[in-house]
């Protein structure tokens, strides 16, 4: 990290208003806790889910239930805000985004109304959570993929539905900066994982799904695991703590206004390797059953971190093995609670 890097405490007073949308979900909820732990006293967390369904609620953080696809709700959400972090989107893992393209595309309403509301409210900075799914899919047809650098989003051939929505929303941010002077910051997340993420129900992503399947197999004594596809498809996975620090630094970097940047790990692994790591953590070896007609997404995807390293002198570095261990242990606890009939995250 460069010594000149700024984080939130360098630019805001502790009682400035911070707004985080999608805060009933994984990353937004974790971000609310992160700013609260830094001592910020006026954090407004917003999500459309009823409050009892939020994954995390940090005491002392204002929590509002609003549907941000409505313009009025966005105006209410940003009242008095110095900074807005827009993490609200209808999304999930491959199993969700390949079968819910309409829902994914409709998230354009959230970002459209949030930007306009933030601009009218005169906020100082606006953060948009974009995705690696915005990249040209034609560059991701080989598991031995060349890592994606920021310029690879164009010429555009994003993932249908979810990826195109992210690309259009990025453009909205860029044009609000260019034409209206709203300071926007855009990070393209690559597979964020960790405790407090979705771990069952159909929207979960590969790391959580695989940890859960290993735990289920151990618990049931049926020592086999279903893997989507051949398992040779490759991805990188970024631990939540790296993601939170990355959001903070990207939002407060003057060189990153309206400039999309990768926020991901460059540790590329195959899904089979990921399964092997989860088995190792669980202390079990499972027979592998490959479901070849499952939704797979692109064949390979990795984050090229040349740009973030150059501009921030930093990149996500948590090794997958250690991040996965923490995630596995957390899911193990959740699994036991659920089995005992107690309420768990994502009930
Ligand atoms: P999440 O599903 O856990 O959280 C998103 C939250 O947005 C949910 O709680 C949902 O209820 C809320 N939401 C949806 N529609 C809403 C609406 N109309 N009004 C208000 N709230 C609404 O997802 P996450 O993993 O925390 O992702 C946060 C952001 O990061 C999303 O924009 C997502 O697209 C992006 N992203 C995440 C990943 C990842 O690996 N988790 C990767 C790339 C991009």
Overview of the molecule:
This protein has 347 residues and is an alpha/beta fold. The protein has two domains: 8-193 and 237-263, NAD(P)-binding Rossmann-like Domain (Rossmann fold, 3-Layer(aba) Sandwich), CATH 3.40.50.720; 206-235 and 268-300 and 319-339, Alpha-Beta Complex (UDP-galactose 4-epimerase, domain 1). The chain is 38% helix and 16% strand. The protein is built from eleven helices and 13 strands. It has helices at residues 8-11, 26-37, 71-77, 94-97, 101-121, 162-180, 206-220, 240-251, 271-282, 306-312, 320-339, and strands spanning 17-21, 42-47, 62-65, 83-86, 125-131, 184-189, 192-193, 224-228, 234-236, 238-239, 261-263, 268-270, 287-291. A seven-stranded parallel sheet has the order 3-2-1-4-5-6-11, with helices on both faces. It has a two-stranded parallel ribbon with strand order 7-10. Helix 6 links the parallel strand 5 and strand 6 (184-189). Helix 7 packs across helix 9 and helix 9 packs across helix 11 (320-339). The protein binds nicotinamide-adenine-dinucleotide (NAD). Nicotinamide-adenine-dinucleotide binds at residues 21-22, 24-28, 47-49, 67-69, 87-91, 110, 129, 131, 189, 191-192, 198, 205.
């Amino acid at each position: 990290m460069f010594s000149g890097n700024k984080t939130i405490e360098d630019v805001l007073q502790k009682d400035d208003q911070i707004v985080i949308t999608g805060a009933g979900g994984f990353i937004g909820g974790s971000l609310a806790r992160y700013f609260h732990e830094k001592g910020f006293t006026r954090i407004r967390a917003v999500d459309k889910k009823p409050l009892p369904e939020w994954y995390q609620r940090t005491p002392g953080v204002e929590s509002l239930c609003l549907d941000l696809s409505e313009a009025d709700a966005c105006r209410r959400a940003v009242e008095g805000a110095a900074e807005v972090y827009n993490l609200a989107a209808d999304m999930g893992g491959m199993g969700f985004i390949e079968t819910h393209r309409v829902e994914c595309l409709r998230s354009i309403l959230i970002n459209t109304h949030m930007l306009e509301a933030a601009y009218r409210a005169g906020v100082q900075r606006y953060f948009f959570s974009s995705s690696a799914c915005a990249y040209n899919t034609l560059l991701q047809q080989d598991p031995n993929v060349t890592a994606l650098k920021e310029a690879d989003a164009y010429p555009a051939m994003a993932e249908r539905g979810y990826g195109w929505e992210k690309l259009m929303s990025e453009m909205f941010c860029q044009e609000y900066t260019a034409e209206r002077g709203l300071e926007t910051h855009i990070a393209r997340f690559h597979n964020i994982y960790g405790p407090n993420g979705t771990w069952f129900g159909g929207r979960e992503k590969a790391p959580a799904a695989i940890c859960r399947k290993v735990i289920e197999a151990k618990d049931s004594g049926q020592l086999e695991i279903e893997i989507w596809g051949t398992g040779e498809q490759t991805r990188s996975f970024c631990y939540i703590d790296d993601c939170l620090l990355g959001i903070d630094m990207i939002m407060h970097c003057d060189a990153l206004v309206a400039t999309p940047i990768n926020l991901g790990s460059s540790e590329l692994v195959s899904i089979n390797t990921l399964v092997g790591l989860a088995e190792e953590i669980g202390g079990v070896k499972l027979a592998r059953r490959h479901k070849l007609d499952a939704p797979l997404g692109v064949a390979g995807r990795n984050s090229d971190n040349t740009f973030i390293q150059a501009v921030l002198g930093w990149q996500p570095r948590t090794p997958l093995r250690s991040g996965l261990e923490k995630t596995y242990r957390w899911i193990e606890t959740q699994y036991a609670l659920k089995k005992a009939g107690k309420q768990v995250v994502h009930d």
